Amino acid sequence: MTGLPGTSRTKRDGCSDEYSELFILISEFTHDQLESRVDLGEANSTFPRDIFLELGRMGVLNLPYSHVIDPQTPPVPYRVSLQVLEEIASSWLAIAVGLSVHHLACAPLMNFGTSEQLSVWQSWILSGQALGAYCLSEPHSGSDAAALSSTAVRDGDFYILNGTKSWITHGGVADFYTVFARTSPLKDSGISCFFILADTPGLEFGKPESKMALNASPTVNIDLQNVRVPVSNRIGQEGEGFAIALASLDVGRLGIAACAVGLAHSALRIANSYSQERMAFDHQIADFQGIGFMLADMATSIYASRCVYLDAAGLLDSGESISQEAAMAKLLSTDTAMAVTTNAVQVLGGNGYTSGYRAERYMREAKVLQIVEGTNQIQRVIISRELRKDP
Ligand SMILES: Cc1cc2nc3c(=O)[nH]c(=O)nc-3n(C[C@H](O)[C@H](O)[C@H](O)COP(=O)(O)OP(=O)(O)OC[C@H]3O[C@@H](n4cnc5c(N)ncnc54)[C@H](O)[C@@H]3O)c2cc1C
Fold first, then answer.
1. Residues 61-72: pLDDT tens digits?
2. What is each CA distance from 59 to 55, 113, 285, in whole angstroms?
3. Active-site positions?
4. Considering only CA atoms, which of 52, 146, 64, 149 is closest in space to residue 104?
5. Which atom of ligand 1 is nearest to 217's Cα?
6. Domains in the chain, please, with CATH?
7. Which of 41, 256, 384, 389 is 20 to 30 A from 169 (CA-CA)?
């Protein structure tokens, strides 16, 4: 694995040697399987389902849940799983975001599921055979997620779910759906969490959204029409769903931060190498301070973003609560990715504006990272709320 251009740092910061083989495996995988397919996959909007099967075979889907799978052995640090995600994002963002969403869909079951639920579904959802979707957003509740209006009404040993979920990554291609729905009118404490298999009658999938980027990753609306879900598929107690959703999002935001750093890193690589090839006024454009300083700022902000998300991951590894740090990491890394990818287009001049170079795609891809898993305004809301606890 290579580090930031111009530095000797590797992408294994803070990880012990026992993970060297994993990082080599991931590096080979991204080179052989992702680099060769990303351009066509994005151009044709084809969802590469087989890649998730392969990630399952490689054991990548297990990484954030080693503490549940085998409580006797030391868990794989989040620093490791997040740097794996960063490496994948540097080759194909849609796969890395898909992996992050799959982890988000698994988190409620893995962290709050009963031993019976784990014994039925754990190996299936971590094997790569089953892909997950996380269904929180609705047409009228995105940022204010607790305002969701889908309902789950108890009917004997079942719940009957009705409503609409919006923007669901992997909608229509997932094998299971982690769905949040209202079991009582109380705002935050009226929400419950359900594990729903894809072939359950009443799940109606819309057409994939036509998006600015991330075209290999389907995003759809899902209508829930009298979906009958056994009570045994409820994760946690009635009313605990929103707390479960938020706990999963703290870790998810570090995933998005890692994705942003991987994407920004690739944009810097293109800009850095182009600046040493392109000539203007009888000089490499890298000789001009206006370009050199731009590249220096890009490298510095990427380095800072990595440090912040890895520090937050370290806190998580020590069992600390990280709501504020995860929000800071997501905010800084995704704003960095937006600025770095935009500047990469600028460094490439007219070529940057064409699809012959990946810089323009990186710029389009960066935008979504400022929106998903809580917009960057919402990250600021979280950070400022924490600040007010400390007058
Ligand atoms: C490609 C893609 C994939 C997605 N995948 C999923 C998924 O798998 N599962 C899922 O559940 N959701 C998913 N989402 C939804 C995403 O999480 C929401 O789009 C996001 O939370 C914002 O919600 P919204 O779009 O309703 O915007 P709104 O909440 O309507 O916000 C509109 C604007 O108002 C701002 N705003 C809102 N409230 C405040 C405030 N209090 N202070 C300051 N500004 C505020 C927002 O920052 C934003 O700029 C996905 C979205 C996209 C685009």
1. 999 999 899 999
2. 6, 21, 44
3. 373
4. 64
5. 1
6. 17-126 (1.10.540.10), 132-239 (2.40.110.10), 243-388 (1.20.140.10)
7. 384
